[in-house]
Give the backbone structure.
Amino acid sequence: AAIEKGGYDHFMLKEIFEQPQTIYDCLRGRLDANAGTITMSGIDKFAEQLVNARRIVMVACGTSWHAGLVAEYIFEELCRTNVEVEYASEFRYRNPVVCEGDVIIAISQSGETADTLVAIETAKTNGAIIMGIVNVVGSSIARASHTGAYTHAGPEIGVASTKAFTAQLAVLTMIALKLGYKKGTLDQQRYLQLLKELESIPEKVAALLQNTEHIKRLAEKYKDSQDFLFLGRGYNFPVALEGALKLKEISYIHAEGYPAAEMKHGPIALVDETLPVVFIATKDSYHEKVISNMQEIKARKGKVIAVINEGDDLSASLADDVIVVPEADEIVAPMLSTVPLQLLAYYVGVAKGLDVDKPRNLAKSVTVE
Ligand code: G6P
């Protein structure tokens, strides 16, 4: 087992550190920024249906559902298609309205999650086109789909999903870019710019993984907290949800993710000097708004941990602690801002002496409902 972990203490850590490679593997052979092309045969085959779809429904569970949520923001921005994101377990049981020609994108690492599988089988009988974004080749969801794209992240052993998530984001972003460009809702200049942005993600993830000591120190500092709040807006709102999920899965600390503005409608009541609030505050079109949310937390004496870009002195001045990530276009930024949150959860779990690869009560793949 020590050999399988490749010198890392846990699979989770190994898989976090594999991300520059797994994202690269996911893009390789598909994205060619110089040629201005994205080749995905499973998507090309259904390009017309995608372009004409009146709506796209993302169906998933857990971390994969968070990838769907990021994709909703990206697809709506780049493709101007109405997107809904559904928990598979809710979607399958509530007699959802599914019409001929609707595109259902099922997102699943394992390809075996029972709720997701049944959800797409039901939608299929109503005439929907099913696209599977799956990691495990030949899995049930891959087989039940009309078409799709594999994430190529390799086997994920740690129960908490890490590298599968960033690979899902890479695949979904490529699909949105293809579709937006084909539809004409994404102009050529922006398309080419985003191809370059996406291509540079693996090296940016590698750069941020160069120095993780400070995240370990933060984990030590905050490991005895009772609760954590994670806040973000826009593309980084689902990242906040994912950061909170990762922390509770691995450290058993209660954590909530919220859209930063929505915290005024509830979570703000929890804020006092003992509450760490993690802000995902990278530079994007929401940045000023996020800063004012940070000020609101500071005014109530919360402890602010901010994930920011280099040179963001204003955010840094409001934060008790910062985690710096490389700058990137907001469309691709979640693949960067997620990584330090995975590490934070990992190091808090380790600092508490917990079994981070096999957290209690959780299963790697939930094949029963
Ligand atoms: C379980 C796992 C999660 C995963 C979720 C969905 O809860 O512990 O890590 O996100 O299932 O799994 P899937 O394989 O469909 O992505």
The longest strand covers residues 303-309.
